[in-house]
Write a structure and sequence with these properties.
By secondary structure, the protein is mostly beta strands. It has a domain of 102 residues. Helices cover 8% and strands 45% of the residues. The strands form ten sheets. Strands 29, 30, 31, 32 and 33 form a five-stranded antiparallel β-sheet that branches. It has a four-stranded antiparallel β-sheet with strand order 1-36-35-34, with no helix packed on it. Strand 8 and strand 9 form a beta hairpin. The N terminus is likely disordered.
Length: 456
C-alpha cells in the first residue's frame, strides 16, 4: 500500500510538473502581431526602435488611419485601431505618405506605437555644380534629437546615418556633406582640390588613361563612407590619389578635427572597400586584385594583417564587436561560420559552424545571392535568412545562441487565417526581439504584415 502511495505521488508530481512545464516551454518563443503594415526599422536610439510604415499597393487608394497598438509578453494579440493625432498625412507623386515615421517608445510587455513631435524638413546640399535636396525627419527619443530619412524606401538621397543617428552623411559624386541633429544646414566636409587638382581635372586625366577600354571612367571622390561605432570617424574609398596607377585606396576622416589621411594606400592597381568597423579602433576591409578578394583588418595607423578565413571564396556578412559571421564559399553559401577576433595578434578563433539544409540568400528575390544576417545588438545571438532545399521560394530564419552554441529555425509566422506566410525580412530590436516582416497573398495581392518575435 505504501509503495502504491509512493507511485501515485510520483505520478501526481510528474503530472503537475508537466502542467507547469508545458506552459513555460510554450511561452519561451512568443509572437506578437502588429498588423497588416510594412514596418521597417530605421533606427535604434537609446534602445528605442524607430520604425517606418512603408505603404503597400492597397494603400494607394486611400491613406490608412494611423494605427496604435500594444502587445503583451504572452504574445496574445491586443491590437487596437485608433487615430493618432500626432501623425500627419499628405499626397506626393500620387502616393500617400504617412509623416513622420512611427516610433516604438519602448519594447516592453506593454508597448505602444506613438507619433513624432515634428514635421519632416528638407536640407539642401548646395555644391558648385549641383544641389542635392534631402528629406529628413527629426525625432525626439528620450529627450534626445535624432535624424532619420523621411522615406527610407528611397535610396536616391545617398544618406548614411551614424550608429546613434545624431549625424548623417550625404555622399554625392563630388562631395561629402555632414548633417547634425539640432542644426538645420548641411556642412560640406570634403575638399574641392586634391594635390592641387580639381575633380574635373582628375577625371579628365582618368578618361585619357582609360581611353579605348570598356566601361566609363569613374572618379570616386568620397565613396562608401562608413561611420565608426562612436560616430567620430569615417572610412571611405577613393581613387583620386591613384589615377595614374589605377585601383583605389581607403582614407580615414576625423569629424572632430575635420582632417583626413590615407589609411590603406594603393600599391599596384588593386581596389579596396571598407566592410565594417570592428570597434572604434579597427576596420575590416576587402582587397580586390586579379579577380580575387581577400579580407584584412587594420588599426587607425594603417597597420593591417590578413584575416585567415577558410574556404575558396569566403564572404563576411555580419560584424559586431570582434565577432564575424561568414560563409566559406559565397558561390555555394551552405555553411555558416562564426568567429571571434583576437585584437592582440588578429588571429581568428571559430566558435560556431553549421552546414544548413539550404542556402544563405539575399532577402530581395531576383538579386545576386548574398548572405543576409545580423548579430543582436548585445552580440549574444546571430540571425540569418536562408532558403531551405525543400522549397526555393520559401525563406526561413535561423537564430544562433552563441552561449549555448545552438540554433532554432523559424519556418513561418503564425497565421490565424490559415494562409501561407513567408518570411520577407527582419531586424533585431534588442538581444531577444526581432521585428519580422511576413509576406502572404491576400485576395490575389501580396501583403506585408509585421510581427515581433521574442526568443525565450
Amino acid at each position: 500500500m505504501r509503495r502504491r502511495t509512493v507511485i501515485l505521488s510520483a505520478v501526481g508530481l510528474m503530472i503537475v510538473s508537466l502542467l507547469v512545464a508545458v506552459p513555460l516551454l510554450a511561452s519561451r518563443d512568443k509572437w506578437s502581431y502588429l498588423g497588416p503594415e510594412n514596418y521597417q526599422l530605421v533606427a535604434v536610439a537609446d534602445n528605442v526602435p524607430v520604425v517606418f510604415n512603408a505603404l503597400q499597393d492597397r494603400d494607394k487608394e486611400k491613406v490608412r488611419e494611423a494605427v496604435s497598438g500594444t502587445f503583451r509578453e504572452s504574445g496574445v494579440e491586443v491590437f487596437e485601431q485608433g487615430r493618432n493625432p500626432d501623425l500627419k498625412t499628405r499626397w506626393e507623386d500620387d502616393r500617400p505618405e504617412i509623416l513622420p515615421p512611427l516610433t516604438f517608445k519602448k519594447i516592453t510587455p506593454q508597448n505602444t506605437l506613438a507619433g513624432l513631435r515634428k514635421e519632416v524638413f528638407e536640407v539642401f546640399c548646395k555644391g558648385r555644380e549641383e544641389t542635392i535636396k534631402v528629406k529628413l525627419a527629426k525625432l525626439c527619443v528620450n529627450d534626445k534629437s535624432i535624424l532619420v530619412a523621411a522615406n527610407p524606401e528611397s535610396s536616391s538621397s545617398g544618406l548614411v546615418s551614424s550608429p546613434d543617428n545624431t549625424r548623417c552623411l550625404v555622399a554625392t559624386e563630388k562631395e561629402l556633406w555632414l548633417i547634425e541633429a539640432g542644426k538645420e544646414d548641411a556642412v560640406k566636409i570634403s575638399k574641392d582640390v586634391f594635390n592641387g587638382k580639381t575633380y574635373a581635372e582628375l577625371r579628365s586625366e582618368l578618361q585619357k588613361k582609360l581611353a579605348g577600354e570598356e566601361g566609363p571612367a569613374v572618379l570616386w571622390w568620397n565613396d562608401n563612407p562608413v561611420f565608426s561605432p562612436d560616430g567620430s570617424k569615417i572610412v571611405y574609398m577613393t581613387n583620386r590619389d591613384c589615377v595614374a596607377s589605377g585601383g583605389s585606396s581607403l582614407w580615414l576622416y576625423d569629424l572632430a578635427t575635420r582632417k583626413e589621411r590615407p589609411l590603406v594606400r594603393n600599391v599596384a592597381g588593386e581596389h579596396y572597400r571598407c566592410k565594417a568597423w570592428v570597434d572604434n579602433s579597427h576596420v575590416i576591409y576587402q582587397k580586390f586584385a586579379r579577380g580575387a578578394s581577400r579580407y584584412f583588418i587594420a588599426d587607425l595607423q594603417g597597420n593591417s594583417i590578413e584575416l585567415k578565413l577558410e574556404g575558396q571564396k569566403p564572404e563576411i556578412f555580419a560584424v559586431h564587436n570582434g565577432l564575424l559571421a561568414y560563409t566559406p564559399d559565397c558561390t555555394a553559401p551552405k555553411t555558416v561560420c562564426i568567429a571571434k577576433i583576437s585584437f592582440s595578434d588578429f588571429s581568428i578563433t571559430r566558435i560556431y559552424e553549421k552546414t544548413i539544409g539550404g542556402a544563405l540568400r539575399e532577402v530581395m528575390p531576383g538579386t545576386t545571392y548574398r548572405p543576409r544576417g545580423y548579430f543582436a545588438p548585445d552580440g549574444s545571438r546571430l540571425a540569418y535568412l536562408f532558403a531551405p532545399d525543400t522549397g526555393e521560394t520559401v525563406q526561413q530564419i535561423a537564430i544562433v545562441d552563441l552561449a549555448a552554441k545552438k540554433e532554432v529555425v523559424l519556418k513561418e509566422a503564425p497565421s490565424k487565417e490559415g494562409t501561407r506566410a513567408i518570411f520577407y525580412d527582419f531586424d533585431w530590436l534588442d538581444g531577444r526581439r526581432l521585428l519580422v516582416r511576413v509576406s502572404r497573398v491576400v485576395n490575389g495581392m501580396s501583403e506585408i504584415s509585421s510581427w515581433i518575435y521574442v526568443r525565450g
